[in-house]
Amino acid sequence: MKKDIYRIESNHPMMGPLLPPLGSKFIHIGDRDLAIVLATKSTTRPLGHEIRLVHVPTGAIVFRKTEASLASCSDDF
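Predicted structure:
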C-alpha cells in the first residue's frame, strides 16, 4: 500500500509550537490530518506570509493560509 505524503511549505522560514526549532521552509508529513494541524498552528518569519499544504504525489494544494486570511475568519466567530 502506498502512503500519501504531504509537504508543508512556505517561501519564508516557518515557526510554530509543533515544528522543529530550525525554521524550515518545508516539512514532509505522512498524515493529512496531522499536516493540517501543523500548518494551521505555524507562522512565518517575518509574519504574514503564506503557508501551503501540498499533496506531494499530485502537487495539489490541500490547504493554504496567511495571517490576513486567519484574521478575516476570526471576525465570523
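Summary: The longest strand covers residues 60-65.
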